[in-house]
Amino acid sequence: MAIAAVRAATRTDVDEIVRIQADTWAAAYAALMPATAIEQLRGPGARDAWAGAVAAGAGHVLVATEGDWTVGFVAATRASEAVPTPGEPVGPEAWGEIGALLVEPRWGRRGHGGRLLATAAHALQQAGALYGLAWIPEADEASRRFYTRAGWAADGAVRAFDTGDGTLREIRVTGALDLKLQD
């Protein structure tokens, strides 16, 4: 088996990040999103957005590799708002957000997602965050199970996006950044 690793993304990774996002969304969310919306993930706007995220260095864009292949990525940054935490008044500085975490389906079940989440969580902790949050499509049972294994859970928050052909509902999952990932 080839060596698996997680490292910071560089500008040379941007095309692979764009490809992985578009291909993974096309495979996982074709029933939830119109094809035109998914196709926009392959366009110059998406490439420019990822190039800017990688170059900014304000967040953490990491890629998972296996041997010479880039197999997934995560984008994590400080959260823009605080999430109510019972008994513990904390502000947005205590929260980190996983904006995207994707592993190509053909590379799934090899630990890449867990390595990406754990590395991103560590980076967010180093930046001062205590808790993490992620928004996932409500119908995405695989992502829900993944975050549950990491000790994160849906907290009741829901948001909806107009996809141009309907509405995509997302749920927020939250949890501690001192992850205890299980196989």
SSE topology:
Blueprint: E1 4-8, H1 14-28, H2 35-40, H3 44-56, E2 60-66, E3 69-78, E4 95-103, H4 112-126, E5 131-137, H5 141-149, E6 153-162, E7 167-176
Parallel strand pairs: 4-5
Antiparallel strand pairs: 1-2, 2-3, 3-4, 5-7, 6-7
What does this entry show, briefly?
With 183 residues, the chain is of the alpha+beta class. It has five helices and seven strands; from the N terminus they run E-H-H-H-E-E-E-H-E-H-E-E.
- Low-confidence parts: none
Oligomer: single chain
Helix fraction? 25-40%
CATH architecture: 3-Layer(aba) Sandwich
| CATH class (first level) name | Alpha Beta
SSE string: EHHHEEEHEHEE
Helix/strand-derived class?
alpha+beta
Indicate the radius of gyration in whole angstroms: 16 Å
Mean pLDDT, as a whole number?
A: 89
Strand content of the residues, in percent?
25-35%
Query: Within the largest sheet, what's the order of strands?
Result: 1-2-3-4-5-7-6
Major sheet attributes: 7 strands, mixed
CATH superfamily: Gcn5-related N-acetyltransferase (GNAT)
Number of domains: 1
CATH topology tier name = Aminopeptidase
Shape: globular
Discrete helix count: 5
**CA distance, first residue to last residue:** 18 Å
Q: Please report the total strand number as a whole number.
A: 7
